[in-house]
């Protein structure tokens, strides 16, 4: 397929998706579960892709994503709470020390930048570690960040362990889609650039990559900082989605969830991460809800075991099955693309032709 | 002297918590020594042991409940290894670690389902929960018993590893996984044994830990588990005496920090210590230096 047609197809597909979302929003009531899934799914897709950049493309097993999301969320919250409502939000800290508010897009980017700066500083010592040591050290950093943000002495800035609220949130489902879409597009472009090829080389064999002239320390740091930048932005989006934030939300369990999304989608596949994040959120928030309902009857048969929490057990069993039996996840290392689908149909078509020819003989 | 008198309760609590961490840390360090796997589910096995005890005590007397709890916990550890780790033995290390995270997720959700998310009151264990006075400080008897019991168990374990056949097999497997298989060691039974010992110690540890803290919640195992892992890394992963000493140091430091009024940072301190150790001396206090050949 020619490059130009490919671009046209892709642009058309994206516009079509946005149009469908717009129409859905007009048709369904805004309280529908569908929008919860779409909004949260888009945000998780972004953070899953950013984690995939690190785990799947650079081979750095980092578990600090929740910490960087926390930084992004807090930066966003602190910078955008309107000045007039600061007194009520920071009621225990005399209205806090930040007495200005900046526009939402700027605050989102600021969240990303703060996360990136922290990632740079953390990366200086930590990125020298290998595989599981790196994982446990980044997990430790996320926990330290969480403890620091709950500290009373920082209360005028972070509101201690109290909620941050009253900051602007998004109404339309299009907003998280557009922001996450732009960010993911940037990540994809990065992966396809020379930097991306260097990342993949590091993942496949560090020593060989170094021998080919790739500066290991520099590229690892770059991947870590960029991944954290986008985790920070998705943290800001998450704050907008939830309308309140609290440091105790960003536990290591959150990182594990994101890691599971990446694994289910396929480590090393951007589209896989996106698809699986929507599936993950839809399953955990929506489709399996009926399992929590203990008055479920099939005919006159009262289904046993069902009560609050059963949904999560079933969900965890499904995840274990994926981890054990479909180790490659939904997409493996492949990407979903127009070209792939076109090729698939063409091959099928050709195959049929060949068999026809065989029959005529 | 006055300083000691003021801080004695914290110091004692520290030694006691350290002993409990040590019992969990041994499970981590042994599994890591052989499989090179951070068994994220170990902390949750510890939590499940607590829950089993809660439910067992409601229907049966204590002298049945404790052995039953230990047996079930050991069985759980054994099953987790067989179902979730064994099929992945030839897979990359990352997928087996992800499987461990999956098991941890499953156990936590299962606990959430069974308990309904409520904190379960841990039953008082006679004699252990009695209040006693040591040097003018009031505390539960378990505080004093824990370090003693920990040291006895660790000595027994060290003897097991040094002088028995299975212990020799474990040492061989941790030195070189493949070669030990070639020498006729049944690697699967060695690994199962490792998990059985680890879960057994975690069961004892959970009894001591939850007697001090009254409630068992589905996420109660996560934090002690992570800290015990830090202790194992601190002492040099793969080394049992190292894990025990690391656990005592972490337990004591943590409680002294609490005593100084920095409770928010007691968890953070543990992780800061971890990072400092990893950077300054990645092999820990007693770990052996590994040289990678290209």
Please explain how this structure is put together.
The complex is a heterodimer of chains A (361) and B (294). Chain A has 15 helices and two strands. By secondary structure, chain A is mostly helical. Chain A has one domain. Chain A has a two-stranded antiparallel ribbon. Chain B has 294 residues and is mainly α. Chain B has a domain of 202 residues. In chain B, the strands form two sheets. Chain B has a two-stranded antiparallel sheet with strand order 1-4. In chain B, strand 2 and strand 3 form a beta hairpin. The longest helix of chain B is centred in the N-terminal third of the chain and has 34 residues. The mean pLDDT of chain B is 87. The chains are: A mainly alpha (361), B mainly alpha (294). At the A-B interface, helix 6, helix 12 and helix 14 of A face helix 4, helix 9 and helix 11 of B.
Summarize the structure.
Chain B: Belongs to the binding-protein-dependent transport system permease family. LivHM subfamily. Chain A is mainly α and 361 residues long.
